[in-house]
Each structure stands twice: as C-alpha cells, then as structure tokens.
From TrEMBL, chain B:
Xref: PROSITE patterns: ABC_TM1 (PS50928)
Principal subcellular localization: membrane
A Pfam family matched in the record: BPD_transp_1
Membrane topology: Multi-pass membrane protein
Transmembrane segments: 7-30, 72-95, 107-129, 149-177, 203-224, 257-277
Organism: Actinoplanes ianthinogenes
Record protein name field: Sugar ABC transporter permease
Length: 275, 286
C-alpha cells in the first residue's frame, strides 16, 4: 500500500522533528563540559549526569531546588485552586438562571481574548502602588484566574450534568453546594482534569508576570531562574551545563503529568473545541 | 427553590478575582495611558497630570513599535498556517487508519508542549549555535541567528512547541464525528481524500477556528522566545516584538507610555480575534 507507506513516512519524519531536540538535551545533560563540545552531539560520551545533577542542586546554596519548589507551588497551587473556582463559576453559569448571567458569561469570554501580557504591566503598577511587588502573592494571585476554564466548565457541565439529577438531589434535601461537590464534580471530572492541565501549562509558561514582578531570586519559578542563568552564560561559561541539566530537570515533571493524565485530557480537549 | 446565596457562593470567588486581576488592571491601564509625567524645572519633583491622548499619539509616531507589529504580523501570516496545516495533516493521518502505533505518535508529537516556552527557546538557541549544534552542516551554511533568519528560527521554536497541542484539539474533534457519517460517505463511493476534504475538514472547522484564534493571540504575545534569543543573537533588539517594546518601555521607566502600548496591543488582539471569528462564522452560516 503506497498510501500507508507515505503516511508512516510522514509520521516518522515528524517524530524525529519533535523528539530529536529532547533527545539531544537528554544526551547533553549526561556529558561533562569537555565532552559536551567535543563529542558527537547526539550520542553519549562519559556518563556524567550524576555529577551534573549534583552540581545543579548545589550551585549557590541549592537555589535551583528552591526554584523547582516555587514552580510547584505557583503552578500546582494556582491550577488546583483556579480549576475549582473556574469549575464552580462555569457550573453555575450552566445550571442556574440568575440575573446578569449572560453579561457575566460575555465578560468572562471576552477575558479569554485579553492577552495575559497586556495584563502583566498594569498588574505590576497596581501591586507597586500597594507595595506588594516582589512577593509570592504578586505572582500567585493573578495566576488563579482562568476565564477559559470557566468557558470549558460551562460547556462540560451543560453536557454532562443532567438537570433531573440535580432535581433528585434537591428532593433528597441536599444543598446546592453539597450536590456540586458530591455529585456534579464527579460527573465533570474529565473536564476538571482538562481545565487543570490547561491552567497548569498556562501558569507554567507565563514568563512575563514573574519577570516583571520579581526581583528576589529566591522567589523565581524555575523558568525565570533558568532564563536568568542563561543570560549569564557569556560571563560564566560553567553555567551552560547547569542550564542544560536544569532544562532537562524542568521538563520531566510535566511530561510525567501528561503521561499519567492523558486518558483524561483527550476527552475533555474535544469537548472544548466541538461546540 | 434554589437559594440566591448558594449561587453567589459559586460565582463570587471567581467573579471577585476576575474583577481584581482582569477588569481593574484593564481599567487602570486605560487610566494610566491618559496621564503623563511632568516636572517643574529640570530637577523639580515629578507629578502625574492628565495628558489626554498624548501617549497614544506617541504610540502612533513610534517607528520601532510599528516595525515590531509588522514583524509579528509577518511571523503570524507565515507561521500560523504552517503550524495549523501540519497539525491538521497529522490529525487527519492519525484518524485515517493508515497509521499504526497511533498512541505512540500522539504522545511523541505532544511532548514538546510540556516544554515551557522559555526552556524550548533556550534549547533551540543552543541547537542553532554553530559550535554546539548537532546539525553543523545546516548551521554553518545558514546562520540561523542572523538578522535575516532569526525570526524564522523563532517561528520554528513556536511551531515545534504547539503543533502537537493543536493536533490534539483537531484530532479530538475528529474522534467526536459519528461513524455513520463515514459509512454514508463510503456507500456514496468517497475515498480517503474525498472524505477528508469534503467531510472531515468541514466538520472540524470549529476546532480549527478555535486553534487559529489562540494562535493569533499567541503570536501577538510573542515575548519569551525573543527575550531568550536576545542572549543568543544580537539581531534581536529590545523592541523586536510589541511585547518586548512594552517591557522595555516599562523598565525605562515610562509607565504611561507602556500602558498606552498595552492598551493598543490588547485592542489589536481583540479586534483581530473577533474579526476572524465573525468572518469565519459568516462563512459557516451560508
């Protein structure tokens, strides 16, 4: 079959394109500084990963570990809380009629189109008025808001939480909030995972907000930390191996999260796009 | 009866945060953009006075800013169709039954999405560097970090990160198409190509529209990649993209002008996304 061969060829070429850079990063992070520039870039030389990791985690009092921890709190915390808030709001928009419902939805939907970077600067100005820049909260709090999550939650709640079920719960005397947490949230679970993942990636990738807000290195998320090291590579060449090893370490958690959660996000991704 | 209080409990937490971190900042940026800083004498204290549209006048007269707008528009016009075209082709191939090992490919294409933009840019920056690259044959022939090519070097980074993500959105939409539609097409004698072109693509149009809007927003927000590439290439200036201009203006600091830049940018994003949505919706109604 010619068509099959051609299709597999396209798939193969694309796999190379997507995976070779990551393979290169992995191989590179296992090399010593000398081998990195003098050995074949896509294959192993002396295995030096342990030393690189230990150097990475000990450099400047282990600041890299601190950055990783910060990232976990900024992104994990913001995504968990943000998903809950977005889900509750989207659920209410889908299941209850109340005055201002359409207006709220329209405004939130408009929020999806506002570039996050256009918000970062005014946020910085407001936080500096309150003398709250360069704090954990200046990055964490704005990261909680996820209008796209509200949009997804509304679509998914409409599709997956039947009104009859809510009526039955009401007849049983269950309050609205309790019904949400015990019944509705379970039905919406695949959507919640999707919203969580989208939110997680958005916060994880948000570069401008921490860049603009934070001056204290101890508060950096790992992306900003790696960026700041990378800008110093020309003066301090030994940082290059740390940047590479750090880059590898920084992408492992997300790859693992995607692998673990993939059966959930696929179903949810579609529901956001179809209608 | 549903108590009003419980509805409020659902809506208020998000609503308040949305107000505080979306609506207030937008309002504040608009307000700031209408003010200017004046000094009494050379060393006198500075104070903010109402400046009307003065900042906007400066935005419109700012040559480098409009150059950067042109640059990201060029970037978007080339990169977005390539990225989404590739995503569509891969999604259709995955869905066509011609491919074995779908699970593997789906994951392989999606992995780059797990790499944060900054890290992806750092990684590719090394890959483009003539001395470190595994592809020296390429990097020695073409200097990918030169003024002519660096924009497209960045386009490659963005494409690399987002193809898999867009492919998944389109692919999920394809999976949602009921099988009967394909059976009907088969009975009518439609082949793979015909089915893809006349049935699958029109049916996943909403997904394509969605990914296009996100890509337009993404293009106008271009920041992490150029900011990182400044360390690899002197061709990337501090006003290379509109967002970099905002950032460097705010660190001068001229907050009023930077606020005006942000407002113009947010408006431009809004107008472009909305126009695109309206345009495609009208096409769909016919």
């Amino acid at each position: 079959m010619r068509a099959k061969t051609a299709a597999m060829a396209v798939m193969g070429i694309c796999t190379f394109y997507f995976l070779v850079p990551i393979w290169w990063l992995f191989v590179g992070a296992t090399k010593s500084r000398g081998d990195f520039s003098n050995s074949a870039p896509l294959w192993f030389a002396d295995f030096h990963l342990g030393q690189n990791l230990s150097e990475l985690f000990h450099y400047r009092d282990g600041v890299f570990l601190r950055w990783l921890g910060n990232s976990v709190v900024y992104t994990g915390g913001a995504a968990l809380l943000g998903t809950l808030l977005a889900a509750m709001c989207g659920y209410a928009l889908a299941k209850y009629r109340f005055p201002g419902r359409e207006l709220l939805f329209t405004v939130v939907l408009g929020g999806v189109l506002v570039p996050a970077t256009a918000l970062a600067l005014p946020l910085f100005l407001i936080f500096s008025r309150l003398e709250a820049t360069d704090t954990f909260w200046s990055v964490f709090l704005p990261s909680l808001v996820n209008p796209f999550g509200v949009y997804l939650a509304r679509i998914y709640a409409t599709a997956s939480v039947p009104d009859e079920l809510l009526e039955a719960a009401r007849l049983d005397g269950s309050g609205e909030v309790r019904t949400f947490f015990t019944v509705s949230s379970k039905l919406m679970f695949p959507a919640l995972v999707t919203i969580f993942l989208f939110h997680f990636v958005a916060v994880w990738n948000n570069f401008l907000l921490p860049l603009i807000m934070l001056g204290n290195e101890r508060l950096f998320p790992v992306t900003l930390g790696l960026y700041s090291w990378n800008t110093q590579v020309n003066q301090l060449p030994e940082l290059r191996m740390l940047v590479l090893t750090g880059a590898l370490v920084s992408i492992v958690p997300l790859v693992v999260a995607f692998l673990l959660l993939q059966r959930f996000w696929r179903s949810g991704l579609g529901s956001g796009a179809v209608k | 009866m549903i108590k009003k209080r419980s509805i409020l409990l659902f809506v208020a937490p998000f609503g308040l945060l949305f107000l505080a971190f979306y609506l207030v900042p937008i309002g504040y940026a608009i307000k700031q953009s209408l003010y200017k800083v004046t000094r009494t004498g050379t060393f006198g204290p500075s104070r903010e006075v109402f400046g009307g549209l003065e900042q906007y006048q400066r935005v419109f007269q700012n040559g480098p800013f409009w150059e950067s707008v042109g640059r990201v528009l060029l970037f978007g016009v080339v990169q977005v169709p390539i990225m989404l075209g590739l995503a569509l082709v891969l999604a259709l191939l995955l869905d066509s039954g011609l491919v074995r090992g779908r699970r593997f490919f789906r994951l392989a294409f999606f992995v780059p999405y797990a790499v944060p933009g900054v890290v992806a840019a750092i990684m590719w920056g090394f890959l483009y560097s003539p001395n470190l690259s595994p592809f020296t044959a390429v990097t020695r022939t073409w200097d990918l970090l030169s003024a002519d090519l660096v924009l497209w070097a960045m386009a490659n980074v963005v494409t690399w990160v987002y193809v898999g993500y867009n492919m998944l959105i389109i692919y999920s939409a394809l999976l949602a198409v009921p099988q009967e539609v394909y059976e009907a097409a088969k009975i009518d004698g439609a082949g793979q190509w015909r089915t893809a072109w006349s049935i699958k693509i029109p049916l996943v149009m909403p997904a394509i529209v969605l990914t296009t809007v996100f890509s337009i927003i993404g293009t106008l927000q271009l920041l992490a990649e150029p900011q990182v590439f400044r360390t690899f290439s002197s061709a990337v200036s501090s006003t290379y993209t509109p967002n970099l201009t905002v950032y460097s203006t705010s660190s001068i600091p001229n907050f009023n002008l930077a606020a005006a830049f942000s407002v113009v940018l947010a408006l431009a994003t809004f107008v472009l996304s909305f126009t695109f949505l309206k345009f495609t919706q009208r096409g769909g109604d016919k």
